[in-house]
UniProtKB/TrEMBL annotation:
Name of encoding gene: qseC_1
Alphabetic keyword roster: ATP-binding, Kinase, Membrane, Nucleotide-binding, Phosphoprotein, Transferase, Transmembrane, Transmembrane helix, Two-component regulatory system
Histidine kinase domain segment(s): 254-464
Topology of the protein relative to the lipid bilayer: Multi-pass membrane protein
Name of the protein described by the UniProt record: histidine kinase
Spans through the membrane: 15-37, 180-200
GO CC, alphabetical: plasma membrane
EC number(s) given by UniProt: 2.7.13.3
Coiled coil: none
C-alpha cells in the first residue's frame, strides 16, 4: 500500500524517502532537544535564583536589621509599567520578568517593586511556584533567623514564561538552520542519487544497443554490487533467447528438409492421378497420394511434438507425484486402435498396485506414445508388446519389449539420433529422439537392447 503512494521514479522515490527520514530525524532530535534544553534551562535558572537570594541576603543585611516601618522599592512602581519611564531609568524590559523581596517578621523591608509575590508553600527554604493572577512565577525562598527570635525571608522570583521563551529560542536557533538547509540538502541528495544511478543509465544504454540478430551479453566495467544480479539475469535471459531462436531456426531447417521429399512425392502422385489413363491407375495413384499425406501428417506431428518437448523441458516447474499405471492404461487405450489394425497384443504389468513418481504427466504420455507407436510400426501381425513397471531402492523402472523386426547391434547407439529412421521410411525419425530428450530432463538412464529372437527392449530407470 505504501509502495503505491511513492513516485514512479527511483530518483524521486529515493529523494522522498531520504528527505522523509531526514525530516523525521530532525523532528525527533528537536523534541529531544526541547526536553534537554528545558531541563538545562531549568537547572541554570534555578541555580541563578538561589545564587541571587544568597547574594541579596549578604548585601541587604543592614536593611533587614534596621527594622524600617516602610519598605524600600528599588523601582518607583511595578516594572511591568516601565514604558512610562526613560530607558535609562527602567533598564531592560526583561527586568519586569524578575522580582525579589526581603521580609522581616512578615513585613516587606526591601523589594524590587510593589508587586506582591508570595510562594504557595512558605514553610521552608527551597524552590516553589507562585501566581499573582497574571503570571506564574518560579520562586526560591531563603529563610534566616535574627536576634531576639525574629526572622527574615528572602524571595526571588522569575516568570515561568521567560524559561519557555528561552527554550524556544535555543531550539529555534538549533533547528532553524536545518530547516533553511533542507532545500539545499534536497538538491545535493538529488544530484547524489543521479550520480548513483549512472551505472543503471549505462546498463539501459547498452541494452538499447542489442540487436535481435546479435544477442551479445551485456558487460559493464566496475558494475556496482546491486547491479551484478541484474546484469547476470539479463545475460541469462539473452542466452536463453539466443538458444530458443537457434532451436527455432534448426527446427525450421529440419522441417523444410524433411518435408521437401514427401511434398515432392505428393506432387508426383497427384500428377500420376491426373494423367492416369485407366480407373485402376487413377485409384492406385490416389492411394499412394493418401499414403503420402498420412506420412507427411506423421512427420509434421512428430516435428511439432519435438519442438514442444524442447520448450517444455527448459521450464523448472514443481512436480507432483502421479500414478504411472493409470497414465499407462489411458495411453494404451488411446492407441489401441492402431495396434488392433495389426492384431498386436499389449500387456501392462506392475510390481505394485500403486506406483507414484514425481513426473510431468504430459511428459510420461509422450514417452509412452512414442514407444508404443514405434513398436506398432516394426511389430508384425499378431505380435506382442509388453510394458512392465517396477519400483526398487534405486528408483522407478520401465521395461518396454516388442517382438518386432529388431535392429542391428551396431545401430543401437543411433536410435536416439534425430531423423534416424533405420529401415523405416514412413516416419520422421524423431520418436526415440523425443524420448531421449525427456529422459535426460529427469536424469533417467535410457538403454536399448536386442530382444531375442527378435525385437527391441527399451529400459528406463528413473532415479528417486
Amino acid at each position: 500500500m505504501f509502495q503505491n503512494k511513492l513516485p514512479n521514479s527511483i530518483k524521486k522515490r529515493t529523494l522522498v524517502l531520504v528527505m522523509s527520514v531526514f525530516a523525521f530525524t530532525s523532528i525527533l532530535l528537536g523534541i529531544v532537544g526541547v526536553i534537554a534544553a528545558n531541563h538545562e534551562v531549568e537547572e541554570l535558572f534555578d541555580a541563578r535564583l538561589a545564587q541571587q537570594a544568597r547574594l541579596l541576603l549578604h548585601l541587604t543585611n543592614d536593611d533587614i536589621n534596621a527594622g524600617k516601618d516602610a519598605p524600600t522599592f528599588v523601582y518607583p512602581s511595578v516594572i511591568s509599567d516601565f514604558e512610562q519611564y526613560d530607558v535609562s531609568e527602567a533598564g531592560h524590559n526583561y527586568e519586569s520578568k524578575v522580582h525579589f523581596s526581603i521580609w522581616r517578621n512578615g513585613k516587606v523591608v526591601v523589594a524590587s517593586d510593589s508587586l506582591s509575590i508570595k510562594p504557595e508553600v512558605d514553610d521552608g527554604n527551597g524552590f516553589g511556584y507562585a501566581d499573582n493572577g497574571a503570571f506564574e512565577w518560579r520562586t526560591f525562598e531563603l529563610k534566616t533567623s535574627l536576634n531576639e527570635g525574629e526572622n527574615s525571608r528572602i524571595v526571588v522570583a522569575e516568570r515561568s514564561d521567560v524559561r519557555a521563551e528561552m527554550v524556544t529560542e535555543i531550539v529555534l536557533n538549533s533547528v532553524l538552520p536545518e530547516l533553511i538547509g533542507w532545500p539545499l540538502i534536497a538538491v545535493f541528495v538529488w544530484m547524489a542519487v543521479g550520480v548513483g544511478l549512472e551505472p543503471l543509465k549505462q546498463l539501459t544504454s547498452r541494452i538499447k544497443l542489442i540487436e535481435p540478430s546479435q544477442l551479445k551479453p551485456v558487460n559493464l566495467e566496475n558494475v556496482p554490487q546491486e547491479l551484478v544480479p541484474v546484469q547476470q539475469a539479463i545475460n541469462s535471459l539473452l542466452l536463453s533467447i539466443e538458444q530458443l531462436i537457434g532451436r527455432e531456426k534448426r527446427w525450421i531447417a529440419d522441417a523444410a528438409h524433411e518435408l521437401r521429399t514427401p511434398l515432392a512425392v505428393l506432387r508426383l502422385h497427384a500428377q500420376n492421378a491426373e494423367s492416369a489413363l485407366t480407373t485402376e491407375e487413377r485409384e492406385h495413384a490416389l492411394k499412394q497420394l493418401q499414403s503420402g499425406v498420412d506420412r507427411s501428417t506423421r512427420i509434421v506431428a512428430q516435428l511439432l511434438s519435438y519442438a514442444r518437448v524442447e520448450s517444455q523441458i527448459k521450464q523448472n516447474t514443481p512436480l507432483l507425484s502421479i500414478d504411472v499405471m493409470k497414465v499407462t492404461r489411458r495411453v494404451v487405450a488411446e492407441l489401441y486402435p492402431m495396434l488392433w489394425e495389426k492384431r498386436i497384443a499389449i500387456e501392462t504389468n506392475s510390481s505394485e498396485d500403486l506406483l507414484l513418481y514425481p513426473i510431468e504427466e504430459s511428459h510420461l504420455e509422450i514417452i509412452l506414445q512414442n514407444l508404443i507407436s514405434n513398436s506398432a510400426k516394426f511389430t508384425p501381425q499378431n505380435g506382442l508388446v509388453s510394458i512392465d513397471w517396477s519400483m526398487d531402492d534405486a528408483g522407478l523402472n520401465l521395461i518396454f519389449k516388442d517382438n518386432g523386426s529388431g535392429i542391428n547391434e551396431s545401430d543401437l547407439s543411433r536410435l536416439t539420433e534425430r531423423f534416424y529412421r533405420g529401415s523405416d521410411v514412413s516416419g520422421a525419425g524423431l520418436g526415440l529422439s523425443i524420448v531421449s530428450s525427456l529422459t535426460k530432463h529427469y536424469s533417467c538412464n535410457l538403454t536399448f537392447l536386442r530382444n531375442e529372437p527378435s525385437g527391441l527392449i527399451v529400459q528406463l530407470k528413473f532415479p528417486l
